Amino acid sequence: MDNQHDDSATRTRLRAAPASTPSRLPDDPEERADLLEDRRLQWDQDWAELGGEA
After folding, report:
1. Which intervals of the chain are annotated as region Disordered (predicted)?
2. Residue span of the structural domain in which 43 resides
3. Which of 19, 31, 49, 53 to pair with 5, CA 20 to 30 A apart?
4. Which of 2, 10, 14, 11 minimizes the C-alpha distance to 50?
């Protein structure tokens, strides 16, 4: 018996537009931490706007 939750389709993740984020992180540890934190906060905000659903 098939279950709808056993779907073997490829899952996708949310991604930013290619030009919206730098391709590599800064060398400075403080700048790197700030950028990663900004990305995490933006991801959390985007997720909340979607109601926790993708």
Report:
1. 1-40
2. 26-53
3. 49
4. 14
pLDDT, averaged across the chain: 75
Quick check: is 37 in a domain?
A: yes
Structural domain count, the chain: 1
Which CA distances in Å does 51 have to 5, 16, 28? 20, 18, 35
**Quick one: what percent of the chain has pLDDT higher than 90?**
31
d(CA 41, CA 35): 10
Question: Does residue 13 form part of some domain?
Answer: no
For residue 34, tell me if it sits in a domain.
yes
What confidence tier does 30 reach under pLDDT thresholds 50, 70, 90?
very high
Q: Rounded to two decimals, what is the model's pTM?
A: 0.48
